[in-house]
Amino acid sequence: MRIAVTGSTGLIGTALVRSLRADGHEVVRLVRRPPAGPDEVRWDPGLQRVDTGGLRGCEAVVHLAGAGVGDRRWTDAYKKEIRDSRLLGTAALAEAIASLDEPPRVLVSGSAIGYYGDTGERTVDEDSPPGHGFLPTLCVEWEAATAAAREAGIRTVFPRTGLVVASGGGAWGRLFPLFRAGLGGRMGDGRQYWSFIALHDHVAALRHLIDTETLEGPVNLTAPEPVTNREVTAAMGRVLHRPTAFPVPAAALRLALGEMSGDVLGSQRVLPKRLSESGFAFAFPTVEDAIRAAA
Question: CATH code at 115?
């Protein structure tokens, strides 16, 4: 199968491309510079330009590109960059593939469990409404930006990604060095729920979304049992054999992270209802399994 991927140099994109190629699929990577080989296609999400010629023959498109939500403190300027990088790029890609004489049969367009906002101890699934605030509003608009593809009859899936457990990047990648140094600890009161997924399972789930014709719309990519930050802290300590006696006060997080601290201190208890019902099997269903796989 010929598959196009945006965000191919990121944590998830790199792992996905490696997995697809290992199984003999032809992967075309969308890049923002002049293509360096036949497996690259030029695009400029900011200017909403896509070289549609390079997408011909693709049966699937996986869209993962966007400015990192946790890369910097949320200034007004960076919030605009986060939003624009998602909405402009998604709309451009959706319009480009919709214009093809033979469009791909599926678009897997990234989203996030930020859609649900702070859910406290309440469990939510794909049937739950969006929350309130910057991230929920962004996710609603992000998913809506695929309109051109959906109107063209392309099956469109929104993987709402949880916290990806990996040592090589992402939010969890920042935790490993701290815990290995014996400086890890719960955040705030530690009662907030974290909806996680192992990187291996996330890649496998993306491939499941490509292949499963019955899946369309939002699909939560999270492990079956969300856990509290206190439980995450204990599991990290057990796996890495380090003490976890240094809690980070909520006030310190708010001072250091600003508005973004709401995502760290907030609670999201998200269940992968549609993924589980479709027959997907998790290789690393518990947080300790996921941490050991990443360590």
Answer: 3.40.50.720
